[in-house]
């Protein structure tokens, strides 16, 4: 810790920040773990009770096939919600110590930035979603170009496709003469 620079402490603030992190990070991680267990158990209990009610409503008057499909769907939804709850709850173990130094007045002295890790972990999913969206847009533009080249005869040119008179009357837009 050097005392050169502006103010009484100068550049020593960074040394005090590291010292604060070394002393208090383990205890803040334990406190974060206790809070994580408390929050997770409370939300898990709430999810269990709400899925009990939801499954009762869903499976009450169904047949065997309906109930099997309902059970599988409910198990998948419940498992996904529990995993999400666990991930978000136990993030407190790293989040609380990471932000404690900034709450006291120091900059974050942590070597692990949980938010940056989360962004880097979800980046491939975001890139895949962007790629899928671009492919969908290209496909739709290709369909639009095909409709323009074909002259709009029947498919996308604004006319109704061949259908019986009852269906045509139901899907026909309302005009002034109808009112």
Number of strands: 0
H and E order? HHHHH
The percent range for strand residues is under 5%
Radius of gyration over C-alpha positions, nearest whole angstrom: 30 Å
What can you see in these coordinates?
This protein is mainly α. It folds into 2 domains: 1-112, no CATH class; 115-149. It is built from 5 helices and no strands. The longest helix is centred in the first third of the chain and has 48 residues, at 12-59. The model is unreliable at 153-157 (pLDDT under 50).
Quick recap of the structure?
The protein has 179 residues and is an all-alpha fold. It has five helices and no strands. It has two domains: 1-112, no CATH class; 115-149.
Layout of secondary structure:
Blueprint (H helix, E strand, L loop, with lengths): L11 H48 L4 H27 L1 H13 L9 H36 L15 H7 L8
Supply database-style keywords:
single chain; 179 residues; mainly alpha; 2 domains; 5 helices; flat
């Amino acid at each position: 810790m050097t005392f050169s620079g502006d103010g009484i402490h100068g550049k020593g603030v960074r040394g005090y920040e590291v010292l604060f992190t070394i002393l208090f990070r383990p205890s803040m991680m334990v406190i974060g773990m206790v809070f994580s267990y408390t929050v997770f158990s409370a939300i898990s209990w709430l999810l269990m009770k709400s899925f009990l009610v939801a499954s009762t409503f869903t499976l009450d008057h169904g047949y065997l096939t309906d109930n099997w499909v309902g059970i599988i769907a409910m198990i998948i939804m419940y498992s996904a919600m529990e995993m999400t709850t666990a991930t978000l709850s136990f993030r407190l173990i790293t989040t609380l110590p990471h932000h404690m130094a900034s709450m006291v007045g120091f900059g974050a002295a942590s070597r692990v930035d949980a938010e940056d890790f989360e962004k880097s972990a979800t980046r491939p999913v975001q890139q895949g979603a962007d790629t899928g969206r671009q492919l969908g847009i290209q496909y739709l533009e290709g369909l639009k170009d095909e409709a323009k080249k074909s002259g709009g005869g029947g498919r996308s040119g604004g006319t109704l496709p061949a259908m019986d008179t009852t269906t045509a009357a139901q899907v026909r837009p309302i005009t002034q003469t109808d009112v």
